[in-house]
Amino acid sequence: MTNAHLEHVPALDPLSDLPALAEVLDALPDPRSRRGRRYRLGPLLALSLLAVLGGATSLVKITRFITGCDLDLRARLGLPATARLATSTLGRLLARLDGDTFDTATCTYLAKLAACPSPPTSTGARAPLLGLAVDGKTLRGSRTGSGAAHLLAAVRHDTQTVVAQRQIEAKSNEIPAFTPLLSTLDLSNTVITADALHTQHDHARQIVAAGGHYLFIVKGNQPTLLRRLKALPWREAILNDRTDERRHGRRGIRRMKICTARPGLPFPHAIQALQVKRRRTDHRTGKTTIVTIYAVTSLPPGKVTHTQLALLVRGHWGIEALHHIRDVTYREDACKVRTGAAPRILASLRNLAIGLARLIGWTNIAAATDHYRSHPIDGLQLLGLTT
């Protein structure tokens, strides 16, 4: 990478051990007929991703970036140097792509890339547990008469990279998509975290059968379980973890208690129960809110420390941070693309851009988009588009 890039973030050495992302994109099935095809699929998608890395928030801006690329670069990538790419042409291509195939290829690439920096464990040492958050997001700008596109994703706690994603079928919900979402992932040494919607018996059995663990939030959709959790002797339980943070004009205090689940707790493989009290004070208004959250986990006592367990609870909300970045930095909900797979492909390109930026050290995605907009050569190197 260039010196300008190295001043901002560290180089990502494992990139050399994997095929360039441009090659991965070029291997995707092309839905277009060969006759009249003027733009190679892989380079066109890679340049679209480069545009998103630089903050492009719409098809028009992506197209404008591609047509404004250096003519020598376009020629080297097999794109016509003189033809002007129309927004409608790019939109039709994205709409006809196979969303499942695109997500499988790109999420697998990100998953392998995210696993590369992990330091090897010593002989006989136990591999650290990986937190994987599962949650859904509606692409509000894609709404039509039949509804809006809704995506369910699995996101690593530590790197905010999307390692699996599926689109929810029309007139369905996230629950049936949970099993196929995780079916292709290796869940060993993994803790799946999810909100109350996915606190389902079948989901718990699937995760444990695959060699993983779960940490599920419990709310009113599991009334018997919630009632049993509330009845546990929390007053007598010791305080296992406490954090006190001040940021964004607020003070947040979190207290976590743990109870070993009593026999007969009505949830498969539930070994420990958690009570988390969150107290938040807004210094601007002086208003204080207190929320109590209950959760169950298959993690046995001693598998992780109390601090690590608290981090797993908090780490789940990292997927909400990812959704926030897509909405605020990339204006996802304002994007009115509605045709075919195009809304899903654009969301996946945003996931890719954020994941790649995180993996090379960016903590502020808005700053990353500013950098790649003014230093496109760094993005070209990141995607393997330079020679």
Give a verbal description of the structure:
It is a single chain. With 387 residues, the chain is of the alpha+beta class. The protein is built from 15 helices and 9 strands. A 9-stranded mixed β-sheet has the order 3-2-1-4-5-9-8-7-6, sandwiched between helices. The relative contact order is 0.17.
Average residue pLDDT: 88
The tally of beta strands, per DSSP, is 9
Radius of gyration: 23 Å
Order of helix and strand elements from N to C terminus: HHHHHHHEEEHEHEHEEEEHHHHH
How far apart the termini lie comes to: 12 Å
Which structural class do you get from the secondary structure elements? alpha+beta
Task: Detail the poorly predicted runs.
Answer: 1-16, 121-125
Considering DSSP H and I runs of 4 or more, what fraction of the residues is helical? 25-40%
Total helices: the number is 15
In terms of topology, how is this protein built?
Blueprint lengths: L2 H4 L14 H6 L14 H13 L5 H9 L3 H6 L10 H10 L2 H17 L14 E9 L11 E7 L5 E6 L7 H8 L7 E5 L6 H9 L3 E6 L4 H8 L8 E9 L2 E11 L11 E11 L5 E10 L8 H10 L2 H11 L13 H18 L5 H10 L1 H7 L5
Parallel strand pairs: 1-4, 4-5
Antiparallel strand pairs: 1-2, 2-3, 5-9, 6-7, 7-8, 8-9
Helix pairs in contact: 3-4, 3-13, 3-14, 6-13, 7-13, 14-15
